[in-house]
Known about the structure:
By secondary structure, the protein is an alpha+beta fold. The protein has a domain at 2-240: 2-Layer Sandwich (Nucleotidyltransferase, domain 5). It contains 19 helices and 24 strands. The longest helix is centred in the last third of the chain and has 25 residues, at 373-397.
Amino acid sequence: xxxxxxxxxxSVKTAxxxxxxxxxxxxxxxxxxxxxxxxxxxxxxxxxWAAVLxxxxxxxxxxxxxxxxxxxxxxxxxGETIVFLxxxxxxxxxxxxxxxxxxxxxxxxxxxxxxxxxxYRHTGCTDIEPTWSLLKVLWVKAHEPExxxxxxxxxxxxxxxxxxxxxxxxxxxxxxxxxxxxxIQTRRYWDKTAGxxxxxxxxxxxxxxxxxxxxxxxxxxxxxxLSRDTVxxxxxxxxxxxxxxxxxxxxxxxxxxxxxxxxxxxxxxSVEPILANHLPFQPHALSGKFxxxxxxxxxxxxxxxxxxxxxxxxxxxxxxxxxxYEALNALAAGAPAGCDGLVLLPFFAxxxxxxxxxxxxxxxxxxxxxxxxxxxxxxxxxGVGFMLRRILGLILEAGIPIREVRSMGGAARSDLWLQIKxxxxxxxxxxxxxxxxxxxxxxxxxxxxxxxxxxxxxxxxGMVRLGRRFQPEARHRKVYDRQYALYGRLxxxxxxxxxxxxxQAGGA
Length: 508
């Protein structure tokens, strides 16, 4: 059996999978993010670690199996979130979370030194953004020199957890690609970024996805009841593992996760069409392949915002906050396709692929007195659908085929939302039988690492299962084409306004 962890934006998910890919038990442990200033998002590294350990304990207890049957551990994390450790392995300061956008001045500083096109070709990141770990490190160097001087290790989040589990400081090209430190062409640290920032000696050893980082520390194995022979396997960024866990290992299959952010995964056999169309990408876990990773900062988190701010009655009546979404989906189903002209630009924390516009903000357009909460609830689902269509259009324009889209994340529970996406994008949407494909992806890597399968493709055949398929319905095509055209025109018209008024909106 295989124990997995996924350190997300607001919670850690742990799970225990068997060789057939069936989850024996799962756990979710939350933690609190701090936002001490506008654009700042931080977290306590110890809170991440404590959540992983408590999640392991809860999962093992709930599974009701002998913990010594666990052969390997593998996990994932959000990308870009960065941890600073001192010589005694203690956090120097709070972790700076990927959502943090404070490093705007450092963006301009780096752009003055480095052509964004050169940055793209060496990192796979389509622009220089405050999201990337490099920019966060530059901010700490500029504003907290005493903290930087005390730093002996700089780790991304999955690296930090593996370090705590094994004592080995190592990372992978798939996790490092969006840090800005790695040259993905050489798979080594890039002197023009890591060297210039003076951090090469602080960064972890680079190893391959799926390699064994080491054995679990004996004291941790004893504490958890695991065998001291349990190995810890290097995973990847959450969206990378999610794609693997959905069987996204060949061209024609696209995976999309509508969670806090929206992340797309597209397997490609060649880098040329990717570079020609300026798409964000990383090395795939499969040798010789690439994973295109377009993304957006906010997607289903907008639905959560709407629930928390405008659905108090549904929250009150629901058994728990998650059940309130069922009531919201029923509400949204009462609004017509196209929401009677209401359209949302879902850029609540900037617009990323392909706009790369950190100044963009959310906009509702077309409001009239006839619009009610049902229109807003459905409008969020449609706005996110238009964002997905925009991204998938880029993939098709690059000559990369799309046979089907496999959907993950909390939004994949909604039949309505999946049908809306299928109708807007005119592509089949497939719900995965196992909702937590990130954990399943970790289980695939963990299984291959201990020899239970010869490779990832065989592991996917044995462990990955598809669920319900949603075919596009032609009856909504005309209204969605019209609304999608409006969506694009609105962004283009408002782009200069976003930048001009960003300081008044707390954007700079």
